[in-house]
Structures are given as C-alpha cells and as structure tokens.
Amino acid sequence: MTSEERREARYRRRVAARLAKKEKYASCNDFSAVFSYGNLYRAYRRCRKGVSWKASVQRYITNAPLNVLNTFELLHTNKYKSPGFNEFDLYERGKHRHIKSTTMSERVVQRCLCDNSLVPILTRTFIYDNGACMTNKGYDFAIRRLTQHLHEHYRKNGTEGYILLYDFSKFFDNISHEVVKKVIRKEISDERLLKILDHFIDAFGDIGLGLGSQVSQVLSLATANRLDHFVKERLHIRGYGRYSDDGYLIHSSKEYLKECLRQIRTICNELGITINEKKTQIVKLTHGFTWLKVRFFITEKGRIVKKICKRNVTKARQKLKKMQEKWLSGIMPLQDIRAMAVSQRAYMKKFDAYHTICNYDQLYNKLFILLPWEVEHNALHQNTS
Fold first, then answer.
1. Per-residue confidence at 4, pLDDT binned at 50, 70, 90?
2. 67-71: long-range pairs with CB below 8 Å, 24+
C-alpha cells in the first residue's frame, strides 16, 4: 500500500467515524423525538424529586398526566409560551443575587430539552476538565482535578511554578445572546428546536441568562467552551480546569502565564465575557492559593494540603450558635440540628482539617451536650464491655 492509499484510508475512517457519531445523536436533533410524551413524563418525574413537598409541585402532581399531555399538545402545535418567572433576591456571603426561577410546567419542558437534546449534543464538545453542572462531575470533581494537576506538575517541575487564577465578572448577567445562539446553531439544525431555544433565551431580555434555569446553566458552559479549547489546544496548558466562571492555569513560567492571560482577555472580549481583574492573579505555588473556597498548599515533598476557607468555618460555628437559640425557644427540633451538624462535619472531613473538626465537635458538645456520632460510639463501647 502506497502512502497516498494510506492517507486515503485514514480519511475514509475519519469520515465514517464522524457519520457514525452524527447518526448516534440524530434523535437529539429531532423535535418530535426530543419532545415525545414519554420523554416529557420522564422529565416530570425527575423534576419532582426533592421538591414534591412544595405546594406548586403538589398542584402539578395531582393532574400530572393531563398536565404533561397539555404541554405535549402545546409544543407540537407550536403554541407553547413561557409562563414567566418567579423572581426573588438572595444574599449569599454578602453578594446580591437576583433569581429568576421557572414554574413547574416550564421546568418539565426545559428538563426534557436538556436531557434529550442540549446536554448530549453540547457536552461531547466540552473538554474533560469543564466540571460544572454535568453528570458525574461537579464541585468535588473540580477539586480532584486541580489536585491531580498539581501532582503532575510536581513530578515534572517540583515546587517551582505558578498558577493563574481567573474569574468572570457577573458571568450570567453579561452572557451575549448572539454568541449563545451562534454556538447552538453549530450543533443543532432542527428549526423547531432552535425556535424554542431562542424563546427561552430571549425571555431573559436583551443580554444575559438568569439564575434558576437549567437551560441557562447548560448554555453558560457552552458560551466559554471556545476559551477552554483555546487554552488546551493552542496554549498547550495541561494543568487547566474551569468550574463555571472560575478557572486556573498551571505552568512553570510566570512570563508564559502573563502571555496566556493576555490572549485569554482577547478571546473573552470576542465572546462578550468580562474578566474580574480583582480576582484574577498569578500566584507562586509555594505561597498557597485559594480556589472555589479551598486553600491549597504544596509542600517540599509534593504533598497537596487542602484547607477549608476560614470564613466558611466561622459561618458554620455562627450557624450552630444561632440554632441553639432556636432549639431553646422550641422553634427547631434537635434532630434537624444534628442532621445539619453531621452534614457539615462530613464536608470538613474532605480536607486536612483535623483540629477544625475537633473544635467544631467541642462547640457542639458545649451547645447541645453530645454529638450523634458520640452517642453511637458510647453505645457501642457499652455493648462491647
């Protein structure tokens, strides 16, 4: 076989692989297949999980089959319109967040659209280290990947190196609708699917995507997907990851990271994304750094130490003291407080925080006498003795 024949054979294999992949996701690009009654009903079953105690959800559940059928008919007769949002404000760690929550009926449509079209089509274009809002990924995945990237850097370069931490300013509020629609049209060709997607996007106004919508979460990841591929494939940064609007780049050269930041700014300007200059910085690895509310340190022997953010520990201790007041006044039962304490303690055990956990236990002992795991330990000790 000549070299020309080998090249032709490789080309045909690539074409065949692309066609096979396209056929695999053909149903995800078909409006009728995506919004079948079965898919809508399965989406309803998923939407009610964990929130069936809410009055609005219970009203939907009482006539669920008919409600799903009504939605099915509206979609297939091109009469479906978004009923609007339930808008409210949250203050998280001093930050004001305006939430636009969808109704149960629209949540079913969005869940069906995401599970059967958006997620299968868009996620195959994402890099592996894009860790937010995806199945089998999330916060813990992002922390594990950063830890692995630090280990890999240490094996090659030791403790010498730097990390570039960047953050997007008001990411959801500033997402360009033009950029989002362009990304969608590269992967989806069904006009009816594009029409309903445009309807959900335009419902948030001229710019930005609201918090509280599943479609917004998936599309926000796709907006910066071009940046992820640029860093991995053009800048050749192995130690790179992104969790929604927070990202990092690890490299041995500080000057190269400065050049990377310059090019990242250029790509972000083209995508309509604003870099938060106050939170964007280049840090020497041996000095330690904070990412996703976790404080990372790398020792001379290559051990990665993960500490809890001090502010989170302070908030957890303050929460216990407030709950004691509610318990003494009879507003909150001790069982609910114990469940919260067990959850907080399990979170702390993910980090190198032995003394923090001991101090948390002592505070709980002081406020509520005995911890639930200490009660179990004492009972087990008595049985064995």
1. confident
2. 67/105, 68/37, 68/40, 68/41, 68/44, 68/108, 69/37, 71/40, 71/105, 71/108, 71/109
Query: How confident is residue 25, by pLDDT bands cut at 50, 70 and 90?
Result: confident
Kindly compute the dihedral angle of the four CA atoms of residues 158, 162, 163, 166, in this order, to the nearest 10 degrees.
180
Radius of gyration from C-alpha coordinates of the chain:
25
Contact 341, 371 (CB under 8 A): yes
Rounded CA-CA distance 364/351 in Å is: 20
Q: Rounded to whole angstroms, how far apart are CA atoms 49 and 46?
A: 6
Q: Would the pLDDT of 191 be above 80? A: yes
CA distance 383 to 112: 52
Token duo for residue 373:
């795991």
CA 11 – CA 117 distance, rounded (Å): 29
* Distance of alpha carbon 315 from alpha carbon 190, whole angstroms: 49
* Sequence-distant (≥ 6) Cβ neighbours of residue 33 within 8 angstroms: 27, 116
| pTM of the predicted protein model | 0.84
What DSSP string describes 71-135?
HHHHHHTT------EEEEEEEETTEEEEEEEEPHHHHHHHHHHIIIIIHHHHHTTS-TTB-SSST
Tokens of 228: 């992820």
Written as six digits, the tokens of 3 are 């070299």
Long-range contacts of 77-81, Cβ-Cβ distance < 8 Å, separation of 24 or more: 78/192, 78/195, 80/109, 80/196, 81/199
Give the tens place of pLDDT for each residue, 114-151: 999 999 999 888 999 998 888 888 999 999 999 999 99
Determine the length of the chain: 385
